[in-house]
């Protein structure tokens, strides 16, 4: 990705600015995601103002889950777009992939949350124009999105046309979540679109307004309102002499009936409020204008960074920037005051993973929040508490006891929401069944593990009593019921699962799963026994609503008989039964590719199941989590072995390898992992 | 539209070829529509193979109506696209709006139905490539669509990537009609997508396959199947030396459960057949290949044109081409063997008018079919017979008797399907209510008029007895019940309507409506009386199912008291009560504009109602239909007056003015109208 200058910014901006120095339409999608703006409530994917083939415009709001139709699973719906602004220069569409791009840079200032783009462009006819774009999602008022365009004709007078509004024709890859909404212009200035999701009945109100200036002086440009199917826009036209600057501000706001502020209202009342509040917020915003609104948001970012910025000493400024980049994305993806919502596996920077929460939250994201913002960590774990209903239901559906967490989780009521079908099977020509919802069960242990971590770090008694005990003991109970007795080996096993390494399906005794399940049950037992002894009154009360006695009995009967895979004579722990007997192939063609999953181009899932290849290394995650359980020598041997067989086709993979390498003193490998881990 | 060379083609092709000589992205939409391919069963909008901003890919199949959700009206859904082929030249997308277009022409051969495009393109890096594209929709097998690409590197070896398949992410301007379908690759060669509309339950099976040749020799290029959300495609890559030619054929076919062939099957059985038949048709097609399939289609076009081509003597070959162009589009828009479906107001060349049938069919299209293909005319009028249920229901809903035809009509069961809201009101900022479904009532008389014309031309007794008598008498009965008695003037009036001139709403005694209603009632009366006298047995049988006695009584009581607007002392007939008292404004700014309806940018519907301006001239249509009723002098005076006040903002307008001018001997005006009437 050498088109990105990560290490940009000088002076006080040093290592705060991510810069794209060359415009290359092939990387539209990557940059839309990397430069994403947001505040935890909403995220705006950073599609450019003008349109390009291959773009994806996404405006996602946390918690607004909807199931488009019976053939789909629930997902965050793509709200009507407000990022698109068509710019007509003497009647022709401005677009950087025609004419000549004489200057170009796009920058995301992580410190202030502002995205800017600076362009000098010559039209195919040779007409030079300077264009500067600015955009932010407010951290001060989570509903607000600010945009600003500055257009300066350099060589001659230009008739500038601006077509800009709200576009409800966007979909999630073709799935339309919203009914055609109501569209209205107020006072010729405020555009409104209010629409409702077709299944969950979430109302989204999107408002936008424009302010126009010429050389700093406010202009009253006649704005023609145009209402078409699922769109509403204003069309403006103004002649700008060479050397003068037209400024168009586009201020927008978004409210939905799922907003936390409307939590106590009926859905009808909440729906009504969205439109009224949106218009009201925008009226005030219009008085303030882009610069003032941005200033307030920048101040909120300053307050955010002040206690949180992690400064490192590094030779390469990139390292500092990369760290801040990660912290920035953690900031925009998490709604830390709303326990009704989780964090999407891709945040809200795009439609991928549908806004669903996976084990990623607990194992990869929560450590950060636990150390820097325990309140946020608590909110996120409370989300898991709210989804216990789905976990109990899933356990019941599979014939188990206790809480079996969904592999993918959305709105609290939704339960398991993992899709059933994925990409093409290269051999059969059919879509590949997605089995993770059924077989990737370790998430229950991951959640229990993290609740315990949270307790250890915070000593948050209130949370543990209200939520934590139930999560740990009832996931423990699930595992106890899940165990399978092997009469031959006289041990309890966990068969037919998928571990973190999703390239292996239907495996028996996955090391990660077995160890983590064992840990989960151990925790549950310990907690029950300690509570009974040390907090008898609380314990008795708790027994009234939780089957703690049964849980204790079921776990204690089995715990010590669980099979935990042990190292062989080489010191290697098999990832699952029979792993070392798999076929070895040359993995070089699939390593360090531009896209992940290239092995699927040559092998189907069934074939990959028989090959000694990993998407990510289960054992290394296990070492990372249960650090004390394994001696360093064993870790290093396994690290070397599994690293060689790992394609890192999961974005979660490299960070684990990096931490492990670091622990093992393999500095060079650790650093290489750090520089190449997706942020 | 000077970018189009209408008068293209030489030798035997003279005045058969519509040519676009310059590629201009601003006219993407126009050309997609003008170059549309089809066979009455399906139409493929002629979007280019490679993607462009602003394109609209439409694949519409007659009769597949679906209502996407409760906020929409039913429409022809956009089927998964097969026109898109992404061409990667050394890894970069081929697109004519970047690099240099050294040669370009696109041609639609009306005689053969083949669309071709010839391009010599230099990439921004200066790499020259010749690309030739061919496409047809088979007139021999209505399910088949053929495509062919020929790519010849001119300056150096090029690695050519082809990404091509079936894309179900398309929508109707954001409305998604199809559930996510099943996707499958058979034998690595046949791509299949089977999906179902979400309301009407119509199953659509789309299949596509590719054949690859290098210098005429069939190639086995590894094709990677890629299945994503709502898409399935093959990705191929091949290195082609300079001067050699890669040929990629893309053969596709479409079947739906609404197909006439499945009429007698249950919808489940029909759904099953779509997939099986599609695959079977495509297997055969693959054996034949593009050239052979095209040859068969060309032969079908030859047989089609042989008796139908209208040759005119003209100084300007454009006139001949324009006539053929009109005949071509009439050929591709009408499914002349299926009386379950009508003709959409825009044919199936795009999403506009949603595939709904208006009065356009009877008044503007049917005369052609009556003269050239009476069987087709009969099929189209049978469609109106099948929709009588909706007409009876609409009359009842409004408190009238008889048959009140829907203003917009879709599937026979649907009844009235006119949408309720349109574009923006420039004054209030709200969407403009669409009142035509309620107020534009003349369609019932238009249909009766055309049934009578059909009878006069064909003497088709079977049709009249089975369908025609009912249509004419029951629309007559509707009008009798619709009349309003004016006690002061002692006359029957028709108030609060919209005439063909839709710029005037809620008008009283619209001349067109009153005269046509009177004619309709007169016809009904005449028919009833003649049948009773001349065909007493048939008449008695008919009375058992139709209220002919009541109809006769109701009409005969009122007919002679209907107010028919008369010329004033200038010899001008008012279009409706009070028309001559309306305000005159300077219409110059709104005449001959690039887009229609520009008056709405300055005035809202209410204001336009008070201005002496016409969208199209009602009186002239009336003169055209009831030719004998008015003397030539009166016609000419009215022609001159109304022509001056007409913006021709309806595409139906100019043709009427042209015919009238011709009748009146105003040759120059008639010819101007002919050259400027939309085909």
TrEMBL record, chains A, B:
| Record-annotated Glycoside hydrolase family 65 central catalytic domain positions | 324-676
Q: Which GO terms describe its molecular function?
A: hydrolase activity
Q: Which domain of life is it from?
A: Bacteria
Task: Please give the InterPro entries that the UniProt record associates with this protein.
Answer: 6-hairpin_glycosidase_sf, 6hp_glycosidase-like_sf, Gal_mutarotase_sf_dom, GH65_N, Glyco_hydro_65_M, Glyco_hydro_65_N, Malt_Pase/Glycosyl_Hdrlase
Every Glycoside hydrolase family 65 N-terminal domain range: 20-258
Sorted UniProt keywords: Glycosyltransferase, Hydrolase, Transferase
Q: Which Pfam families match?
A: Glyco_hydro_65m (PF03632), Glyco_hydro_65N (PF03636)
Coiled-coil regions, chain positions: none
Question: In which family does this protein belong, per the annotation?
Answer: Belongs to the glycosyl hydrolase 65 family.
Q: What is the recorded name of this protein? A: Family 65 glycosyl hydrolase
Kindly list the organism's lineage: Bacteria, Bacillati, Bacillota, Clostridia, Eubacteriales
């Amino acid at each position: 990705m050498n088109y990105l200058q990560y290490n940009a910014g000088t002076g006080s901006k040093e290592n705060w600015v991510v810069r794209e120095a060359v415009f290359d339409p092939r990387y539209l999608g990557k940059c839309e995601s990397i430069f994403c703006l947001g505040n935890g409530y909403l995220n705006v994917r950073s599609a450019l103002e003008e349109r390009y083939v291959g773009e994806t415009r996404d405006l996602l709001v946390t918690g607004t889950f909807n199931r488009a139709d019976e053939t789909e699973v629930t997902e965050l719906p793509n709200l009507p777009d407000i990022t698109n602004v068509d710019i007509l220069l003497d009647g022709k569409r401005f677009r950087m992939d025609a004419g000549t791009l004489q200057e170009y840079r796009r920058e995301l200032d992580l410190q202030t949350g502002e995205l800017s783009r600076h362009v000098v462009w010559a039209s195919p006819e040779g007409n030079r124009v300077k264009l500067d774009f600015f955009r932010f999602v407010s951290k001060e008022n989570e509903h607000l999105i600010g945009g600003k365009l500055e257009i300066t004709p350099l060589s001659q007078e230009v008739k500038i046309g601006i077509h800009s509004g709200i576009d409800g024709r966007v979909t999630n890859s073709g799935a339309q979540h919203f009914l055609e909404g109501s569209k209205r212009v107020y006072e010729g200035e405020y555009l409104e679109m209010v629409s409702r999701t077709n299944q969950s009945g979430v109302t989204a109100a999107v408002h936008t307004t424009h302010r126009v200036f010429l050389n700093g002086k406010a202009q009253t440009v006649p704005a023609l309102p145009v209402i078409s199917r699922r769109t509403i826009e204003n069309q403006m036209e103004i002649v700008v002499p060479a050397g003068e600057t037209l400024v168009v501000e586009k201020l927008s706001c978004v409210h939905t009936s799922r907003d936390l502020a409307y939590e106590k209202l009926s859905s009808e009342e909440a729906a009504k409020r969205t439109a009224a509040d949106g218009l009201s917020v925008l009226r005030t915003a219009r008085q303030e204008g882009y610069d003032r609104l941005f200033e307030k948001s920048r101040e909120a970012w300053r307050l955010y960074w002040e206690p949180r910025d992690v400064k490192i000493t590094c030779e390469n400024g990139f390292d500092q920037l990369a760290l801040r980049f990660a912290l920035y994305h953690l900031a925009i993806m998490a709604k830390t005051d709303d326990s009704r919502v989780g964090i999407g596996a891709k945040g809200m920077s795009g439609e991928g993973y549908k806004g669903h929460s996976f084990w990623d939250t607990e194992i990869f994201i929560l450590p950060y929040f636990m150390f820097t913002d325990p309140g946020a960590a608590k909110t996120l774990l409370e989300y898991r508490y709210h989804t216990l209903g789905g976990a109990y239901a899933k356990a019941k559906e599979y014939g188990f006891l206790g809480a079996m967490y969904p592999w993918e989780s959305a709105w609290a009521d939704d339960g398991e929401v993992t899709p059933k079908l994925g990409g093409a099977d290269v051999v059969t020509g059919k879509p590949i069944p997605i089995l993770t919802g059924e077989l990737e069960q370790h998430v229950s242990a991951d959640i229990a593990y993290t609740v315990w971590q949270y307790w250890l770090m915070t000593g948050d008694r209130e949370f543990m009593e209200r939520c934590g005990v139930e999560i740990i003991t009832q996931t423990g109970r699930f595992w106890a019921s899940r165990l399978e007795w092997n009469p031959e080996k006289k041990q309890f096993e966990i068969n037919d699962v998928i571990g973190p390494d999703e390239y292996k399906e239907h495996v028996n005794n996955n090391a990660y799963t077995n160890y983590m399940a064992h840990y989960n049950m151990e925790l549950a037992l310990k907690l029950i026994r300690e509570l009974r002894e040390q907090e008898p009154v609380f314990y008795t009360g708790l027994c009234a609503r939780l089957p703690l006695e049964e849980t204790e009995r079921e776990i204690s009967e089995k715990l010590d008989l669980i099979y935990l895979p042990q190292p062989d004579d080489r010191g290697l722990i098999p990832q699952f039964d029979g792993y070392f007997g798999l076929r070895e192939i040359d993995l070089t063609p699939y390593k360090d590719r531009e896209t992940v999953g290239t092995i699927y181009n040559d092998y189907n899932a069934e074939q990959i199941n028989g090959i000694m290849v990993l998407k990510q290394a289960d054992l290394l995650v296990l070492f990372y989590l249960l650090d004390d359980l394994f001696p360093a020598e064993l870790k290093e041997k396994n690290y070397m072995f599994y690293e060689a067989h790992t394609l890192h086709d999961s974005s979660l993979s490299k960070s684990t390898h990096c931490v492990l390498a670091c622990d093992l003193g393999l500095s060079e490998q650790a650093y290489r992992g750090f520089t190449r881990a997706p942020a």
